[in-house]
Amino acid sequence: MKRVALIAIAAVAAWLLPYGLGGYAIHVADVAIIFAILAIGLGLTMGVAGQINLAQVAFFGVGAYAVAILTTQAGLGFWTAAVLAILTAVVFGVLTGIPALRMQSHYLGIVTLGLALAFTNWVTNSTIAGRAEGISDIPVPPMFGVDLSSGYLFYYVELVVFAIALAFALFVTHSPLGRRLRAMRDDDLAAGALGAEIPLLRMTAFVLSGLYGGLAGVLYAGLIRFVAPETFNIANMFLLLAMVIIGGRSSILGCVVGAVALSLVREALLDASGYAQLGYGLVVVLVVVFAPKGLAGLPGQIRALLRRRTGGSRAQLGAFLPYEPAPAASGEVALDVREVTKRFKGLVALDKVSLTVPTGQIRGVVGPNGSGKTTLFNVVSGFYDPTEGSVELAGRGATGLAPYRLSLRGVARTFQNLRLFEDLSVRENLLLGLDRTRTTWIWRYAVLPWKVLGYERTLHRRTAELIERFGLSEVADAEPRSLPYGIQRRIELARAMAMSPSLLLLDEPAAGLNGEEVRQLADIVRSIRDSGVTVIIIEHNMGLVMSLCDQVTVLSSGRVIADGPPAEVAVHPDVVAAYLGDSMAAPTEETAEAAVEEATR
Ligand code: ADP
Ligand code: MG
């Protein structure tokens, strides 16, 4: 209710604004709105999706120049040209996104910067773009007899476009797509394991960027009716960057606030633009150091400080509610790994490893550090392609598939060193696991937005159940990093189970847990198995392995050296030797077990 009231107040204020402004002031407002749309686009790619994009100003230029060229030289009407211009900008977005499939961070920054420079170079030198003089005489956009050459009336056109653009950006960021984009920004490997198609997601980010850039370009062409290269130069790219960083790159509203604020500052400092550049630079550095989430992040930062001051509350895990047992499957094979070899340059991490895991089993994988256990998981979950050999899931080939494909085939995993999305709440971490859609599903955002909202509601309902089941109610809205290690492990397990997997891979899930937590973990894993999920568990805690696993596979230096029931494997001479060196004399059952436990502590 409060939100509706705020939106209504903002809308009315924006609608009435021109009545209080003079001719020049309204022009400044018109330009500020265009910058705000550009900043939203940049916020989506850079802030939300984490793709460094220094070509936003070029998308802007492509939109504006396309309108200019198509109206003045091809003789098209303004709005026809506008639609084509936006499409062209989107195509440029896609082209700029291609390098992002191969490179990230500063490399991507350099490439996109290069593309932006190439664009200004091209317009400065090409006759069709009017060279350095640019293109004037862009026609006034016709609008049912309303004279849009007036800055006042154009303001209302911009306002409507801006409202729609803002609403769409907020819709995207607060929905499954936005959540996946943020997850990709935090940790693209973990996002891939949860079913996010990383290449397509990066492309989507650049498409959005192109769309918003093109839109801003069209409005600019309609407002100024003149385009020239210097509007789209690097100085303006940095101004745009400053807007997004100061406002708060991961918050769309923050980007808008930053854009409006800096547009006004820029106007005020027009006479001292050299110093202004220096000033923006300084402020950006200060913001990056002291308020990395920008203006939009300040309230949260202050709240976190206060919480630290008051000590904060010690979060507690609730009880786990067991799953419904399912009838045991018999005779089917969940995972078949055949003669898999994985080489890293000279090092053989896996050497002809074979193992067959029947459906509904808890399989232990043990072995000294560096024996290849995690590498085996990485091959099965698609992070590494095996150098040789094959992997089958439930009888179907699954060798070398991308992580998201394997996740859709029912493989879920946890990580040895926990890979929770740190900037997302616990609830959002779980929502990501529950979202099983493909990225191609997102055409609904444009055509059937209510379906997206309905789906989001369903996800939230199922997340609430999952939170309840895993006893996470108390921590559901916390950031994972603020929580004790044991709780983070539980969250990662819950996130993996959110995917309703058929095969669950747990990489040292008991590492860092206390005795009570290990006992709870054993109960949870048993309940997961009883519900029909096959579990493979890498573990150093021999007590847990002995009591939990139906069968244990022992790796040493990348080779399987034993495979069988836990009690048999523990006294296998090769196993004892691998753990203790060859000096060990023939052990009795008890000494072997004790020694193994000792060696792996
Ligand atoms: P474990 O999980 O059993 O402790 P790992 O599977 O992590 O062992 O590692 C097995 C061996 O493979 C180690 O020697 C490790 O250094 C090497 N290794 C693992 N991943 C890579 C990689 N990406 N590049 C190079 N070497 C790797
Ligand atoms: Mg490991």
Structure write-up:
With 601 residues, the protein is α/β, with parallel strands linked by helices. It folds into two domains: 29-234, no CATH class; 333-570, P-loop containing nucleotide triphosphate hydrolases (Rossmann fold). It is 58% helix and 10% strand. It contains 24 helices and ten strands. It has helices at 2-16, 23-48, 56-72, 78-102, 105-125, 151-173, 176-186, 188-193, 198-224, 234-247, 252-268, 273-290, 294-309, 373-380, 403-408, 426-434, 443-447, 449-469, 485-498, 515-530, 542-548, 566-570, 573-580, 589-599, and strands at residues 333-344, 347-358, 362-366, 388-393, 396-397, 411-413, 503-507, 534-538, 551-556, 559-564. The strands form two sheets. It has a six-stranded mixed sheet, with helices on both faces. It is elongated, with a radius of gyration of 29 Å. The model is unreliable at 582-589 (pLDDT under 50). Magnesium ion binds at residues 373-374, 416.
